[in-house]
Every structure is written in structure tokens, then in C-alpha cells.
Design a protein that fits this description.
CATH superfamily of one domain in chain A: Winged helix-like DNA-binding domain superfamily/Winged helix DNA-binding domain
Number of strands of chain A: 2
Order of helices and strands of chain A: HHHEEHHHH
Helix content of chain A: 40-55%
CATH class of one domain in chain A: Mainly Alpha
Radius of gyration of chain A: 17 Å
Strand content of chain A: 5-15%
Largest sheet of chain A: 2 strands, antiparallel
Shape of chain A: elongated
Structural class of chain A: mainly alpha
Oligomer: homodimer
């Protein structure tokens, strides 16, 4: 069981911004973020676009522009972020190929409850909590 | 976030056996199971072999032989099964490529707690609970 790469990168971008000295003013460009996390530019475009659409990032134009946190990190709960980025919601695929057990299968309901328990536990953390990591405080300077 | 296909198939084989009229006596061959769930034989061999090694399935030799449940379904907790089949334990990969945030990252700890919450919730169900599904009771006859 793994988070999607999409969720993983979404969290990393948010954590990076939350760890800056002035989190609500700090910006990062898509190119900088793709370089920092060593992923293709086009992939990072999708990640940042989705976070913007979900109201988690805002755009700052002009010199020094880029994307920035749209809300204080202490108001962003990690479980809520993951519910928005884990778009492939089915934890088990009952149709590829079609499982002969699938009608009214009680396993699916149990898995859905466990999936909710996962998000609820993650909602005990805000972005501010996880961005307090010592590693983030001493992050190497951003590539130009 | 998805269960691995390996976990998925492991659960289906166990559920199938638990749903039979005499769950501790009912057997299925690897070939029958691969046909029932429409997966390659070699893949099902690995699934069944692992369930045997984990003490969940036993082998019955001779005519009508195959694998059977090694313990009553009411004594098999689904969370415990998944802990044994979800062998790729890292819910997030901090090293492919190496994340600049990874040292002492607080996200990882939070994810590990949420992963535990998922398994704990699944442990509220036994194999007997999920195999009570109406779909299982009316399962079509097994391929020969």
C-alpha cells in the first residue's frame, strides 16, 4: 500500500513552502520545484495546478513570483490534503478482472472504513506540524 | 492508495475458502483458484505459497486435495492478513529519487501511525465476518 506519486509530490511541495521563513510570502516556481524534487516539469505542473484548484496554493505574479501557500500551514490538515490528491479512491479493484465475490462484498465496506481511519489519523497533523521537521529547517538553498 | 494485487488475491482466496459449507475441510487447487480469479497460474502459486508460509493455509494431499484454511475463519483477523501480504511496507518512498526533506521528516512518522490505524480498523473484522457476504453464499460452482 503506497501513496500515489501525485500525493507524495503534492505533500512535498506544500511542506517545502511551509518550511520557509515566511511561509505565506515564500514562493517557488514550478521549474524550481521540479528541480528540487527531481521530477519532470510536466508532472510538477499537474501537481501544482491541482493544489491551486483545491485552494491550497495561490499564484504570485511578477519578479520573485511563483506559487505560495494560500492559507496558513496550521490550517491545512494533512488528511484533507490526501483526500484531495488520492483521486484514485478505490483501495481495491473489484472489476479488473471482475471478481466473482464482488456483489455486496463485506470486505469492500471494511476497507472503506479503514481508509477513513487512515485519513482521520492523518488529520491529527497539520502542515505546520510536519514542516517543523529539523530537516526542513536546514534545507539546502533552492536551485535558481 | 491501493492494496497490492498480491494482498487483493490473498484475501480473495481466503474468502473463497471461508465461504464454503465446511470451511476447514473445503479445498481449492492453485489451478482452480487462478481460473476463478482470472489470474496467471504462476502468480497464484506465489500467493498460495505465501499464505501457507504464514500459517493461514494448509495442504491436503490426495484426491480432492489442494489448499484449505489452516485455522477457523473466525480466528483470522483481516488486518493481520494484510500486514503479512503488504510486504512493501513503505507507504511513501523517500529515496526514489532521494527527497531533500527526508532527514527526520515528521511526515513519515505520521504516515506510519495512519498506516497502523488502517490495520487496526481492519482487525475489527475476521475472515468469518467478511465471508458472510451474500455474494459468497451464492457463489457459482467452481471450475473443475
Amino acid at each position: 500500500m503506497q501513496l500515489t506519486r501525485f500525493s507524495d509530490l503534492s505533500l512535498r511541495v506544500l511542506m517545502y513552502l511551509a518550511s520557509r521563513d515566511e511561509p505565506l510570502l515564500a514562493t517557488v516556481t514550478v521549474r524550481q520545484a521540479s528541480s528540487l524534487f527531481n521530477v519532470p516539469y510536466t508532472h510538477m505542473v499537474k501537481v501544482v495546478h491541482n493544489l491551486g484548484r483545491e485552494g491550497l496554493l495561490a499564484t504570485s505574479k511578477g519578479r520573485g513570483g511563483g506559487v505560495r501557500l494560500a492559507r496558513p500551514a496550521a490550517q491545512i490538515r494533512i488528511g484533507d490534503v490526501l483526500r484531495r490528491t488520492e483521486t484514485n479512491k478505490a483501495i481495491i479493484d473489484c472489476f479488473a478482472p471482475a471478481c466473482p465475490l464482488r456483489r455486496n462484498c463485506l470486505l469492500k465496506e471494511a476497507l472503506d472504513r479503514a481508509y477513513d481511519a487512515f485519513f482521520e489519523e492523518m488529520n491529527r497533523c497539520t502542515l505546520a506540524d510536519v514542516a517543523r521537521s529539523p530537516a526542513l529547517q536546514s534545507l539546502v538553498s533552492l536551485p535558481a
